[in-house]
Write a structure and sequence with these properties.
By secondary structure, the chain is α/β, with parallel strands linked by helices. The chain is 52% helix and 14% strand. It has a 6-stranded parallel beta sheet, sandwiched between helices. Strand 5, helix 5 and strand 6 form a beta-alpha-beta unit. Helix 7 packs across helix 10. The protein is globular and about 50 Å long. The N and C termini lie far apart (39 Å). The model has no long low-confidence stretch (mean pLDDT 85).
Length: 219
């Protein structure tokens, strides 16, 4: 199955570069380009791609607001935010807006295509260089105006899984920690996302921090 991608960036050369990298892969295809956030939202609603590569700083509507509008629209599209700015506030704002990942623009081509594939699957994705600082920032961030989803519907095991997702553990790491099979962990993750009405794994990380279930792993 070919993954369909929209590239949103106000620089034509950047869009061209991303298109060349993406279209060179058999399983990826750029189906649209946007030069500002408003156009990105329009194309996403029209084309319903699997992933949008979203620049943070764009005219008319910036990438954070465009991400928020896409997440609120109900489309299944996931947003992967890219920026040249390694700034915690941008990362937190992007995640709060509903982004499924965050990478710096100097990422290598192979890492970019892997990131698109991971994002399309719903896996949490953050640049390793900023992950620990982002988690620290969540502990200091004021409450979001919208209350976090209630956890009453989760089983004890599902709460444990959500806590470990918040620590950025993979399914394999969670399985090892809880002495479960990866298939069982995958089922628990699916149940958590469904019961909390979360778009993907990275939004589960947000929920875990909002509820105080997770703390950053120290080096």
């Amino acid at each position: 199955m070919t993954l369909r991608v929209v590239v949103a960036d106000d620089q034509a050369m950047v869009r061209t570069g991303f298109r060349m990298i993406i279209d060179a892969r058999d399983d990826l295809e750029v189906v649209g380009e946007a030069s500002d956030g408003r156009e990105a939202v329009r194309l996403t609603r029209e084309l319903v791609p699997d992933v949008v590569l979203m620049d943070v700083r764009m005219p008319v509507v910036d990438g954070i607001e465009a991400t928020r509008q896409i997440a609120a629209s109900g489309v299944r599209t996931r947003v992967l935010v890219l920026t040249t700015w390694d700034v915690d506030a941008h990362v937190v704002a992007a995640l709060r807006a509903g982004a499924s990942g965050f990478l710096l623009k100097d990422i290598r081509p192979g890492e970019l295509v892997d990131a698109i594939r991971l994002t399309a699957r719903g896996d949490a994705l953050l640049a390793p260089a900023v992950l620990s600082r982002v988690l620290d920032r969540f502990l200091r961030t004021t409450s979001d105006p919208a209350p976090p989803p209630p956890l009453a519907g989760l089983s004890v095991r599902e709460r444990e899984v959500l806590t470990l997702i918040g620590q950025a553990l993979s399914n394999a790491e969670i399985a090892e920690r809880l002495h479960l099979s990866e298939a069982t962990v995958k089922n628990h993750v699916t149940a958590v996302l469904r019961k909390l009405n979360l778009r993907d794994r990275v939004q589960a990380v947000v929920a875990a921090y909002d509820h105080g279930l997770a703390r950053p792993r120290r080096p």
